Amino acid sequence: MTDAAGYASPAAGSLANAAPAGMFSLPPIKVRTDRAAIAAFVQSTAPLSGDFVPLTFPFCWLTLPVIRSAILEAIGAEGVLPVHEAQKFDYERALEPDSDYQLAIEAKRSEGPPRLTLKGVVSTLQGDVCVRFETVLRIVSLAPLPAP
Q1: Mean pLDDT along residues 5-18
Q2: 55: helix, coil or strand?
Q3: Which domain of life does the protein's organism represent (predicted)?
Q4: Are 138 and 129 a contacting pair, CB within 8 Å?
Q5: What three-state secondary structure class fits 27?
Q6: SS3 of residue 20 by DSSP
Q7: What pLDDT digit, counting tens, does each position of 26-77 carry?
Q8: Would you tell me which of 1, 15, 108, 138 could form a disulfide with 85, CB atoms 3.0–4.6 Å apart?
Q9: Cα–Cα dist 3/60, whole Å
Q10: Regarding the domain with residue range 14-140, which homologous superfamily does it belong to in the CATH classification?
Q11: Which residues lie closer than 8 Å to 74 by C-beta, 6 or more apart?
């Protein structure tokens, strides 16, 4: 099932189909390196010029509604906040502006301290891998700390 923009929208409860507890994967999601989105990303991170996709741009796709809702479901959206802790990108080929790609996401929840680790693979529509990335989100409680 896809939405009007061509993005995958898994059926409700799709995370229940994830194999081991604390893990999930989403079906491949169509993503695009839209020039306007790239320009906004560049303006907010580091003013550069040129016709290229910044190496960390795939991080933006984690805010797509289907991915964001899966993240919130995995961490338990009540009383906690996912805080960006770390990321890494391993490129096999550069992403091109104004191009379509497939994004596959797998995630694993761990404790001590609570984290959600997302592993993504961005491929061309023909299946050629462009980049593999990993993002670690620390799950932080919004409850006030006890007074000393």
Answers
A1: 40
A2: coil
A3: Bacteria
A4: no
A5: strand
A6: coil
A7: 899 999 999 999 888 888 877 766 778 988 999 999 999 999 988 888 888 6
A8: 138
A9: 18
A10: Hotdog Thioesterase (3.10.129.10)
A11: 15, 24, 107, 109, 116
Question: In whole angstroms, what is the distance from residue 63 CA to residue 65 CA?
Answer: 6
Residue with tokens 């993504």: 120
Q: With residue 37 as reference, give the H or E element that holds it.
A: helix 35-45
Residue whose tokens read 């899966």: 70
The residues, ordered by sequence, that sit 6+ positions from 65 with a Cβ below 8 Å of its Cβ are: 7, 9
Token representation of residue 29: 């999601």
Among 10, 42, 20, 2, residue whose Cα is nearest residue 109: 20
Token output for 74: 């995995």
| Three-state secondary structure readout of 57-122 | HHHHHHHCHHHHHHHHHHHCCCCEEEEEEEEEEEECCCCCCCCEEEEEEEEEEECCCCEEEEEEEE
- Contact predicate 122/58, CB 8 Å: yes
Q: Which amino acid is at 49?
A: S
- Residue ranges of the domains in the chain? 14-140
- The whole-model pTM stands at 0.79
